[in-house]
Amino acid sequence: xxxxxxxxxxxxxxxxxxxxxxxxxxxxxxxxxxxxxxxxxxxxxxxxxxxxxxxxxxxxxxxxxxxxxxxxxxxxxxxxxxxxxxxxxxxxxxxxxxxxxxxxxxxxxxxxxxxxxxxxxxxxxxxxxxxxxxxxxxxxxxxxxxxxxxxxxxxxxxxxxxxxxxxxxxxxxxxxxxxxxxxxxxxx
Length: 188
Prior knowledge:
The protein is mainly β. It has one helix at about 1-10, and strands at about 20-25, 35, 45-55, 60-70, 75-85, 90-95, 100-105, 115-120, 130-140, 145-155, 165, 180-185.
């Protein structure tokens, strides 16, 4: 019974679990607020970034963004819907210097509290479409924290060959931060 359930599980966009191939992993250094994946192959249909991390900031949360191909200009827009255990918030931003991914825990919290996100980047190798990403993100502090969904737009038709996760405050990713980049194969 459990085997049948596991066999029926699908990932993003209906891709089966065996459609995901690991491209690269990275960890925070404790001395930089940027984690970059470069030389991304163009052989997949979509990308997925899986994040588990925190920053050295000493206040209660850290926002972080994604940038493509080193572009830090105001060529991004995003929407987000999130809650903090008390208040729901919806916002949209245009002319941003990165697409929002989500929120990470910080050194304000106990060391076992981490922020997480799963981000899908659709049609990343296309040279005819602007690029869209969507994320599920959050962290929990026993009933508080922040959880939400985001979508971002990069106003470029360039194929994505590199991406960076950047802290919004300039604080550093801790050495306990891990990020994995996956390629999603086309359906057979």
